[in-house]
Every structure is written in structure tokens, then in C-alpha cells.
């Protein structure tokens, strides 16, 4: 991965010389607008964009200028984890800085199924990292807890610990929220009391996503009626074989109240499946996520993880449970997801930017990110023609 990134940077050096200018209090970055091809010149003062000018000239030699990438589902990266005994403020900060260097300037730590004590310990690590460093605080809006209120069935449960699976419990979620910045929780609404519990969670200010589920269409619709607004990695965390119809994928694709996360690493969803899902959801109702784990970027081989047990990272980047075809998260970052989707689907750069920047920013609810406009934070990325990251500004400076 590092070799590919270095090669991409070498190819972009001449463009960079012209794209980034100035060393004083106001700097300038230029790149092409993905929507029009026009040259954009963004003026930066401190950590913010103060002006964006559209130039009449077109320059195909310039890289594309897009907002910083926003990943709503990161379990770990670069050998650091937000789960288990290794979760710490230093780990959270290290992931923040590593991801920023790859173009991911905003990310959501994802805490998986565990005991209540383990979940709250991870939330405290996120909170302490944010308090210790304003750069980290700006990069992490909140945390996501994926589980433990999931399906206990093999397949939908994925790599989550069966011993810790339990029914949706709004009171437990309220206790979590006292330990750190909880933004949303992923649940399976297959139990009888799930709608009432979901409504209580939403009323407390925490979003609810549906995922890792064998719930019926009626149960999924009842969950959306109760206030669920997201689908976690749609098409994954589900039985390998489903009825032709109805099934949980069709129900979530059809419900405009649900904005769906899609893992675009080429392993979780085939390119044509991802394309069809994004088109079915329509503009603004799907987003790209990495679902990266601590092993992301590591060498192929078998590993034992403190959370998840024995796994195998294959040469093609596919990460599975050991001796099983079941996926155990992904081994890529969101920038690699963007490059894969751009080169393997017909969705096009404007749509991909919407899915990796604008839609996640809307879900987070922060107008300062996910756009290249005056008043936005200067989280900016330059991409080459293959969608590879050429350069990054995070909060106005190179990470």
C-alpha cells in the first residue's frame, strides 16, 4: 500500500508545485472541480477556507480537489485498535493521524460487541483522546457502537462474540453515553420489544442504524417507524443465502428513511452489487465506509486479534475469520475504497465524492466538513486520475 501511495505522489509532484502555494497566513490550493472540470482556487487562512474562486481556464494537468474523506466506520487502523485491551487515547490519536495522512480527515471510531465494561472503556478512550488534543477532537465527531444488540444467528452475527449478544436495551445505551461521545448504535430489530427500545434511544439523541440482522421486513419497517435512520454496511452482516424476495436487503433499499453504508473494498460487495445498491438508494441516501480493523495495511497472514480471535488477511486484502469465508472487517482505508469504486464502477467522481464526503457530513450534522466552500474547514484532498491521494490538508495544514 505504501509503495502505491509513494508512486502516486511522485506522479503528482509537478501538479502539486502549482496546486499548493504560499507559506504565510493565507495559502492557496488549486485543483479541478469534480463536477465541472473547472479549476478551483481555495484560499485558506488558519484552519478554514476563506474564499473559493472558479477560474475560467481548464487545466487537465491539475489533480482533482475534493473535501477531506469522512469514514463513519473505523474499528482500527495501522496496528491500533479502538476495541479491547489495546484501546487507549494514544491508539485513538495514532489512528487519527495515520488516516489523515491518507486523506481521511474525519472518522468515527466503531466499538464492537462486548461487555458493557469493555464498551464504556473504549468510549472513555475516545473521549480522553478528544480532550487531550483539539486536532483529534475536530477529526472525531462521536463514536459508533456496533452491537451488542445484534442477531445471534451464524451469518448475520458475523465476527461478533455470540456470548455477548443481547436484546436492544435503551437503558444500557444511556449508561454508555455517560462515558463518551456516542453518536449512533447499530442494532438488529428482530426481538419483540425492539421498536420501543429504538424509539427510546432516538429520543435520547443517539441515532440508530440497522445491521447484522435476520429481522423480517415488517420488523425492519417497524424499526424505521420508531426512528432508525441508517443501515450499517448493507448487504453484509446477513445470511449468505436469502429468499429471492422478500428479504432484509430489498426492504432497506426501498425505505427512503434509511441511509445505507456500503463497504467498497471489492470484497464485501462486488462492484456491480455496490453500483446497483447506490443507484437504488438514490442521491444522498448511501455512503462509502471502510469498516477497517487494526490489521488494515498489514502483511498477509494469519493473526490472532484480542477482539475477534483468529483471522486471516489474504494477499488480495480480503480479511476473514480463520478457516472460514466469513469476513472479519476490512484491510483497507477509505481512500482505497474511493480508488476502488472509481476504477471498478460507473458511478463517477461526483457521485463518489458525495458518498465519501457530503453524505457522511450530513449524517454527522457538521456544515464545516464535506464541502469545498468558504466557511468550511480546510480539510482538502487532491486526487489523481485513478482516484489516488496526491496530497492532503487537514485543518489547514499537511498532517
From TrEMBL:
The active site is at 291 (proton donor/acceptor). Its cofactor is a divalent metal cation. GO terms for biological process: N-acetylglucosamine catabolic process. One of its GO terms (molecular function) is metal ion binding. Binds 1 divalent metal cation per subunit. Zn(2+) binds at residues 146, 212, 233. Residues 65-396 form the Amidohydrolase-related domain. Coiled coil: none annotated. Keywords: Carbohydrate metabolism, Hydrolase, Metal-binding. Substrate binds at residues 159, 236-237, 244, 268, 327-329. InterPro entries: Amidohydro-rel (IPR006680), GlcNAc_6-P_deAcase (IPR003764), Metal-dep_hydrolase_composite (IPR011059), Metal_Hydrolase (IPR032466). Belongs to the metallo-dependent hydrolases superfamily. NagA family. This is N-acetylglucosamine-6-phosphate deacetylase. It comes from Propioniciclava flava.
Amino acid at each position: 500500500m505504501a509503495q502505491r501511495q509513494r508512486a502516486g505522489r511522485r506522479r503528482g509532484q509537478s501538479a502539486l508545485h502549482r496546486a499548493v502555494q504560499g507559506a504565510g497566513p493565507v495559502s492557496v490550493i488549486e485543483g479541478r472541480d469534480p463536477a465541472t472540470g473547472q479549476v478551483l482556487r481555495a484560499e485558506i487562512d488558519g484552519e478554514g477556507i476563506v474564499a473559493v474562486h472558479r477560474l475560467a481556464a481548464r487545466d487537465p494537468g491539475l489533480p482533482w480537489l475534493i473535501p477531506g474523506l469522512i469514514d463513519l466506520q473505523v474499528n482500527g487502523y495501522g496496528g491500533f485498535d479502538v476495541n479491547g485491551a489495546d484501546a487507549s487515547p494514544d491508539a485513538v490519536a495514532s489512528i487519527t493521524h495515520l488516516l489523515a495522512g491518507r486523506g481521511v480527515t474525519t472518522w468515527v471510531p466503531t466499538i464492537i460487541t462486548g461487555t458493557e465494561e469493555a464498551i464504556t472503556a473504549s468510549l472513555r478512550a475516545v473521549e480522553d483522546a478528544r480532550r487531550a488534543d483539539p486536532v483529534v477532537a475536530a477529526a472525531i465527531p462521536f463514536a459508533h457502537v456496533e452491537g451488542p444488540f445484534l442477531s445471534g444467528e451464524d451469518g448475520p452475527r458475523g465476527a461478533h462474540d455470540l456470548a455477548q449478544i443481547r436484546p436492544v436495551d435503551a437503558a444500557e445505551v444511556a449508561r454508555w453515553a455517560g462515558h463518551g461521545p456516542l453518536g449512533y448504535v447499530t442494532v438488529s430489530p428482530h426481538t419483540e420489544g425492539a421498536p420501543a427500545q429504538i424509539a427510546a434511544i432516538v429520543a435520547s439523541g443517539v441515532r440508530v442504524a440497522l445491521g447484522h440482522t435476520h429481522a423480517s421486513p415488517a420488523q425492519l419497517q417497524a424499526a424505521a417507524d420508531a426512528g432508525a435512520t441508517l443501515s450499517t454496511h448493507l448487504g453484509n452482516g446477513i445470511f449468505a443465502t436469502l429468499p429471492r424476495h422478500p428479504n432484509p436487503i430489498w426492504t432497506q433499499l426501498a425505505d427512503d428513511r434509511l441511509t445505507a453504508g456500503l463497504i467498497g473494498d471489492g470484497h464485501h460487495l462486488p462492484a456491480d452489487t455496490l453500483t446497483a445498491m447506490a443507484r437504488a438508494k438514490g442521491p444522498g441516501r448511501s455512503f462509502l465506509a471502510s469498516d477497517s480493523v487494526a490489521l488494515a495495511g498489514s502483511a498477509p497472514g494469519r493473526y490472532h486479534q484480542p477482539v475477534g480471535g483468529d483471522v486471516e488477511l489474504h494477499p488480495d486484502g480480503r480479511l476473514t475469520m480463520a478457516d472460514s469465508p466469513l469476513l472479519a472487517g476490512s484491510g483497507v482505508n477509505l481512500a482505497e475504497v474511493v480508488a476502488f469504486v472509481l476504477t471498478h464502477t460507473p458511478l463517477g467522481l461526483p457521485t463518489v465524492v458525495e458518498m465519501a464526503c457530503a453524505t457522511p457530513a450530513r449524517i454527522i450534522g457538521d456544515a464545516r466538513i464535506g464541502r469545498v466552500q468558504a466557511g468550511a474547514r480546510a480539510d482538502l484532498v487532491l486526487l489523481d486520475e485513478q482516484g489516488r491521494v496526491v496530497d492532503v490538508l487537514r485543518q489547514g495544514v499537511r498532517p
